[in-house]
Amino acid sequence: MVLAAAMAVGGTGCIKKALLDGQIKGTRDGSAAVNTLHDWETARTVAQAGIGQLEGMHLLAPQNTDALFLLTRAWAGLSFGFIEDDFEVAYEAGKDLDAAYHQRRTRAGFDRAIFYGVELLSHTADGFEDARRNADTIRSWLVSNFTEVEQAEDLLWVGFAWIGRVSAAKDDAALVGELYVGVEIIKRSIELDERVQHGTGHTILGAYHARTAQAELDDSKKHFDRALEINEGKLLSTKLNYATRYYCAKRDKANHDKLLHEVLAAEDPLPEARLPNVISKRRARRYLGHKIWQENCGFGS
Question: Could you tell me which of 93, 82, 96 has the C-alpha nearest to residue 39?
C-alpha cells in the first residue's frame, strides 16, 4: 500500500510537471504576439503584468529553460522599452531626482535579466564566472560551448541585457570595464545566426562601435549597413541607432535627422515587429523634438 501510494504521488507530480512545462512552452510560442501590438501604453501594461506570471512559472519550474529565456527577454525588453523611457522623459524635463530614480530602475531591470540569462546559459555549460575574466577567455568559452544555431537567440538577449546595463550605469567603472562580456556574447550570437530578430545583433554592435567619437566608426557603419541589408530597413531600431550612435559620433546632423525622419515616416513596415517599431518612433520623435538630445550629439541648439 505504501509503495502504491508513493507511485501515485510520483505519477501525479510527473503529470503536473508535464502540464506546467507544456504551459510554459505554449507561453513562449505565443509570446511573439506581444510584438504585434500597436499601442505603447497597452503594451507597457501587458509587459508589466506578464512579468509576474513568468516569475511565478519560474518559481514552479526552476529548471525550465523556456521560462528562463522568457524572463531574460522580458526583463531586458521591459527595461529598455519602458523603464528607460521613464528615465528619458524625466531627463528631458530636467527632473534630476526622477531621472536618477528611473536610471536605477533601468539598471535593476537589466540586472534581473542578466541573472536569469546567466542561469539559462549555465544549462548549456558551466564556468561562466571563470570565463568572464577577459575578452579572450569569454570568447573561448562561448565558441567551445555554444555551437548550435538555436542558441543564437538565447545569447542575443543575454548580450543585449549586459550591454543595456552598462548603458544605464556609465558611472560604474567596474561594469563599464566588463562591457566586453556583452560584446563577445553578441558576437557569438551573430556567428551562429546573424538574422535573429531581424539582424538586431548587428545593430547592437553598430551602436557599440560608435560609443564615442574615438571608437571604431568604420566597424560601426559595417554592422549598421549589414543590419539594414538583413531587415531591409523595416526594423526601425536599426535606423534609430544608426542616427543616434553613428551619426552623432560623426557630428553629422543632416544624416542624423534624415534617418530619424525616415523612422517617423514609416507606416507599418514589419507587422511582426510592430511594437519595437512603435518604441523606435516614440524615441525618434523625442530625439528630434527637444534640444537636449541634439546638444548631446554635439549639434548645438
Answer: 82
Helix count (H) and strand count (E) of the chain?
17, 0
Are the beta carbons of 157 and 123 closer than 8 angstroms? Answer: no
In this prediction, residues 236-259 reach a mean pLDDT of: 97
Closest by CA to 114, choosing from 165, 151, 78, 66, is 165
Nearest to 72 by CA among 162, 139, 177: 162
Query: What's the grid cell of residue 157?
Result: 538577449
Q: For each of the domains in the chain, give its residue range(s) and CATH number, in order of start.
A: 37-129+151-183 (1.25.40.920)
Which residues, 6+ apart, have CB-to-CB distance to 298 below 8 Å? 248, 251
d(CA 75, CA 2): 45
Q: What is the mean pLDDT of residues 16-25?
A: 84
What pLDDT, in 10s, does the model give residues 169-227?
999 999 999 999 999 999 999 999 999 999 999 999 999 999 988 889 999 999 999 99
Q: How far apart are CA 26 and CA 106, in angstroms?
A: 28
The amino acid present at 188, given as its one-letter code, is R
The letter for the amino acid at 104 is R
